[in-house]
Amino acid sequence: MSLLLIALCLGAGCLIGFMGGVLGIGGGLIAIPALVLLLDMPQQLAQGTALIMVLPTIMMAVRKYNQQTRIDRRVALAGAGGAVVFTWVGARLALGIEPGVLRLSFAVFLFFIALFYAWQTWRAGSVPPAARPATRKGGLPAGEAPAFTPRRATALGVLCGTLGGFFGVGGAVLAVPIITSVFRLSQTTAQALALCMVIPGSAVALVTYSWAGKADWWVGLPLAAGSLLFVPVGVRLAYRLPERKLRACFAAMLFATVALLVFES
User: Where are the transmembrane segments (predicted)?
Assistant: First the structure.
């Protein structure tokens, strides 16, 4: 591997880490289409390589989110426990699918999540401030939304773990809109909890992809090093952005990723 490619991976990792910190996604959604498009990697290899960067990036992001607002550990651990086994199941399924089909499936999944986010952002802007319900700690409207209990977090972890293993990333992307819309937690709180849930599952997925020879460590490690440098900057910005802007950025990033995936196909 040339020094130029290592330097490019470091630079790309810095950008991905910053965006991952802002949006609470670990950066894999950006890295996967970039690896396919720029390095001509098969979809499975791109997903496994992205996980090398994603795992340490998620851990750093969680630490920084927790420094801003304390994460509910019981809920986070319950969600992570539900995700572990099913992440392995999803990863094994993905390894047996033709790369082009997997790529298009990933694009369709992200497209519908992006549509939901765009609708949620528009809806939040269309409701007059006086008509919005009062919230208590964590962004939960008093008396209007179910509590996000460890049992519910476990069920969500099972669903997100399966999808996260299948697509290499994506568990947190699905968890965030569910947590914000069903349980009415704030965007930053949802991003922090979702990232906590996918840490052990991401480790399982990385081992599974690596064992199958679908992870390029020479590319993944420089990406991870660059990403870790800028995750704290991204997390600080996430807490400064207005809620609606943060959701709009999340939706825009998803639509851009879908466009890249369709272009690659």
Answer: 44-63, 75-95, 101-119, 217-239, 246-263
Determine the straight-line distance between the first and last CA of the chain, rounded to whole angstroms.
27
Which pair of tokens denotes residue 79?
């969600």
* DSSP characters over 142-155: TTTS----HHHHHH
Alpha helices in the chain (DSSP H): 3-23, 28-39, 43-68, 73-95, 99-126, 150-167, 171-182, 187-211, 217-240, 243-264
Q: Tell me the sheet residues that pair with 140.
A: 136
Eight-class DSSP state of 6:
H
Cβ of 101: how many Cβ atoms within 10 Å?
A: 11
pLDDT at 167: 76
Q: Which amino acid is at 5?
A: L
State pLDDT tens for residues 177-190. 888 888 988 888 88
Distances (CA, A) of 169 to 31, 113, 134, 166: 10, 13, 34, 8
Per-residue confidence (pLDDT) for residue 134, from 0 to 100: 44
The torsion of the CA quartet 130, 134, 139, 141, rounded to 10 degrees, works out to -120
pTM of the entire structure? Answer: 0.76
Count Cβ neighbours within 10 Å for each residue of 42-52 and write b for 16 or more, e otherwise.
bbbbbbbbbbb
Q: Is 59 exposed, middle or buried (0-12, 13-18, 19+ CB in 10 A)?
A: middle
Question: Hey, what are 19's tokens?
Answer: 């965006």
Give the chain's length: 265
Provide the 3-class DSSP secondary structure of residue 22. Answer: helix
